[in-house]
Amino acid sequence: MAKWVYCFGDGKAEGGAEMRNLLGGKGANLAEMSSLGLPVPPGFTITTEVCNWHHANNSAYPPELKDEVEAGLATIEKILGAGFGDANNPLLVSVRSGARASMPGMMDTVLNLGLNDRTVLGLGKSSGDERFAYDSYRRFIQMYSNVVLDVGHHYFEEALELKKEDLGVHMDTDLKADDWRAIVAQYKKIVEKRTGKPFPQEPREQLWGAVGAVFNSWMNQRAITYRRLHAIPESWGTAVNVQAMVFGNMGEDCATGVAFTRDPSTGANLFYGEYLVNAQGEDVVAGIRTPQHLTVQGKLAQKSDAPAMEEVMPEVFGQLDAIRHKLEAHYRDMQDIEFTVQRGKLYMLQTRNGKRTAKAALKIAVDMVRDGLIDKKEAVARIVPASLDQLLHPTLDPKATRKVIAKGLPASPGAASGKIVFTADEAEKQARAGEKVILVRRETSPEDIHGMNAAQGILTSTGGMTSHAAVVARGMGKPCIAGAGDVRIDGAAGTLSVRGTVVKTGEFLTLDGTTGEIMLGVVPTVQPELSGDFAELMAWADEFRTLGIRANAETPTDAGQARKFGAEGIGLCRTEHMFFEGERIVAVREMILADDEKARRIALGKIQPMQRQDFVALFEIMAGLPVTIRLLDPPLHEFLPKTQADMEQVAKDIGVSVTEIEARANKLHEFNPMLGHRGVRLGISYPEIYEMQARAIFEAVAEVQKKHGKTVIPEIMIPLVATRKELDLMKAVIDQVASEVGQLSGEKLEYLVGTMIELPRAALRAGDIAGSAEFFSFGTNDLTQTTFGLSRDDSASFLEKYQQRGIFEHDPFASLDIEGVGELIEIACERGRKARPGLKLGICGEHGGDPASVFFCHKAGLDYVSCSPYRVPIARLAAAQAALGGPLKTE
Ligand code: PEP
Ligand code: MG
Predict the structure, then answer these.
(1) Quick one: 149 and 184 in the same domain?
(2) What does the pLDDT look like over 836-890, one tens digit per residue?
């Protein structure tokens, strides 16, 4: 029979860390900490299976659940000697969600549950503090009513404000026990008015109401959006944790806080956290009061005047520090913990693997290998490949002038520039329109997630390093500055001001999330480098991977960057990209619009020397590494003259009238250029184009071989091939040119001729094509387009709907459709290698830098993946993880 409830507390637990699928992350770790003998308030976890059962059965519960929950309550009561609903010594509980993957702030929580008109008196007596008891009761009524009964917070907040006005006080702390008692009475009236029923007094009714609300919150819009952004399946469900309350708000010897066992921004091995004296847990996370530092060191680093916990509560701090070491040694990873101090006694409320920036993740992994906590394989498996993206983007140029207007907390590192916006919706709207934006808020809440996701960076005027904005931004890898207290935000006026400097909506700001500096305008950036821990971890990754990594690059700058990032060759040089600029485009237009072969050859003659020089530069930079050069593959429309001035220029160069040029351009117009006269089809129509390109390649090879005395072996690639015959015809042209250039230069020329596999027919006929092709490179951009019959240029507008409706799990142009396109690749690999054992196989579509696609390529037996230079490190790491059996899920 299924067991639905698992108890923990008193140094024991029925569950453990290995049961996170069933107990959720929070429940599994509470059980684990309890077994480790750490001070955890007793409680029980209702499993994720109950969540699924509940949603599958019309919001009902498994029949045995009631008894199991009763038994759970009885266990807590026994450990604490208190009674749920007992008027003299009441047990109060918290009810919290806890999914398998952490979803900070996404789902609902109820605290102080069990309070009613009778137990509040008992709490007053047992705590010796009546004011505290009524304060807790009013907090409970508000939270419960909001979460379970759907009564808006503002009703309660307004009532409280009015009461304070009546009394002529400003702060909650000015209210006395009698005031809170009066407020409680008023709150109950609000509930009755809004719901038509009195506030539930029966603790068991309260408990089931809260449990139901937590399960239902799994299906709220916030949670659904979060799951979509983080690829969390709905089927995981959430668990519910019911745990005895401990209070951090019973007086000055109480506190509550959150901490990381190492610095989550930099990874430094320093205890890093924040606390608030006399506060309840949510106060720290909500970012409403600015918290104090745990350590003196942290306090000094942030130039804070508020005393550190280390100073205020040295004994408790010592215990917490010991727990920090114990948890790290046990979990062998950086932990994110929550704790409460009740009357000088420390309680642990949570531990989990802490979210961290990519930089911190690398440092922690490398440090832990050095300290012998984990081995290199585990270090490599732990880093999320896509997260490296954070480190592969430009950072602010240290030499640039910075007009710093204010400083806040460096909550999530990196540089971001953008136009300022004040709402999440506006951020999303502007980002859709292609703008870069900085989202500016007093504080963020889970409702802002979509805007944070759309923004380049986030700036808040309140909140600490563990505020919602800080935690979520770090998770997203976005720069964030939090708690910039000098910044005044006037959302209605659309302005942000700092001591007289006013910045309006739409004006640019730059954030340096590493230093906390807020700057006017756009500050120039510098290219990233691969060094330190990053370089070390990448070297370990290279020890494990078997897949080769190349880059898609045409220009010397890109090729150089690719090499710096560890590319082992060029997998795709798109020669048409070498023609986009200046004089070249003019010559290319001349070539396209030429009326006959003679005219075309004249235009080609102008282009050839430029092409040769480009190839010389490329071969020199790549210094003997393989270079795959793809012959011309332009959808012609990209090159046709569009403006009147362009037309006139081409007309002048060719020596015909503008009307004639217009007529020729019209003749070349295609309805479906992507499926039109491009790729090898162009080579078949005008072999002189490929002939010119082959000549430029071989002359460059001869030149570089002569100059450096080293063999260069170019890999010449024919695009958009559907049949072997197309390839054969083009190969004959290439072989002919090679023999001519070989004779003329006296150099021995070695080369490969291969093809892209970009059409389903080519994949199916791979056995035949491999008879002529010496290598295949999967052009999965076109292969995706042609397999789905989806235009790569036009599908963005409706693909989002497809993802929202769950037809596509992800954009097939970003992450390979393994089921469909992947099957074609597998077929082509198998048939190709059968016909030509040892056939070299690679991929050069955008998917070459997508980790999930890289895993697939490893499994499919490809020799290499080729991606944009900036994704080379991501591909190296993904390839290593693929060789190690897949990525390690640390959360
Ligand atoms: C491809 O189709 O995947 C490819 C790499 O070629 P291009 O993107 O230039 O069409
Ligand atoms: Mg293509």
Answers:
(1) yes
(2) 999 999 999 989 999 999 999 999 999 999 998 889 999 999 999 999 997 755 4
pLDDT tens column, 670-697: 888 889 999 999 999 999 999 999 999 9
Backbone angles phi, psi at 886, to 5 degrees: 115, 165
* Domain end marker among 474, 495, 526: 526
Which residue, judged by its Cα, is nearest atom 4 of ligand 1?
779
Q: End of a domain among 213, 244, 275?
A: 244
Examine residue 378 and state whether it is found in any structural domain, yes or no. Answer: no
- The pLDDT tens digits for 197-217 are 999 999 999 999 999 999 999
**CATH label of the domain that carries residue 471:** 3.50.30.10
Residues 326 and 426 in one domain: no
Distance separating alpha carbons of residues 326 and 332, to the nearest angstrom: 10
- Find out whether 107 and 238 touch, Cβ atoms under 8 Å: yes
DSSP, res 416 = E
Question: Hey, whose CA ends up nearest to atom 9 of ligand 1?
Answer: 574
Q: pLDDT tier at 828 (50, 70, 90 boundaries)?
A: very high
pLDDT at 218: 93
Q: Which residues line ligand 1 (CB under 6 A)?
A: 572, 574, 633, 758, 779-782, 844-845
Same domain? 217 vs 341: no
Hey, what are 526's tokens? 């510098």
Q: For ligand 1, what atom is nearest to the CA of residue 576? A: 9
Q: Is residue 849 part of a domain?
A: yes
Residue with tokens 């690999």: 829
Domain co-membership, 491 together with 562: no
Q: Which atom of ligand 1 is nearest to the CA of 781?
A: 3
Give the number of the ligand closest to the Cα of residue 573: 1
Whether 182 contacts 163, CB under 8 Å: yes
387-400 per-residue burial string, b: 16 or more CB within 10 A, e: under 16: bbbbbbeebbeeee
